[in-house]
Fold:
Amino acid sequence: PKVPGATYNAPRNALDMYTPRFTKGVGRQKVGCCPICYESPARGGQGSVQWLSMKFSAFNYHMQYFHGISPQSGAPFSPPIAFRTELRPKPAPHERKEMRQGKCHKCDRWIDLEGVKPGEAKVREIYWWKHAASCHKGDALPGDTDPYVHDEVY
Structure:
């Protein structure tokens, strides 16, 4: 595919979901096209061209906290290895009384998966992805980085 005014930017490898496939500009004006948003909805994307600043981390934040893609590995962050719901000690009147938590494979801690205020976040996985970005550092569960092959087994 061609994107007018853009330069093709090769991914690090065939499974790299992080690297922008197209860029424009140089220095402070350099922007990258989100490779996930660019895909059609049939392929899991949004079918839109999202240009994000490379210099001021907008691209990095978008990939990590909107799509959950690790900049180190180029793959999605590993999910929690277990889940639980805990009662919150002394919640304020307009706060959640229970908190869903996920267990991290790397640090072995239970991480809150939602905010204290009732209601859904715009990006539900944001709390997990923020933890994963600071903790996992490219580390993944065994099998997480294996390619999915659609065959008679699946």
Q: What stands out?
A: The CA atoms of residues 135 and 146 lie 21 Å apart. The beta strands are 7-8, 22-24, 31-33, 51-53, 83-87, 98-103, 110-112. The chain has a mean pLDDT of 91.
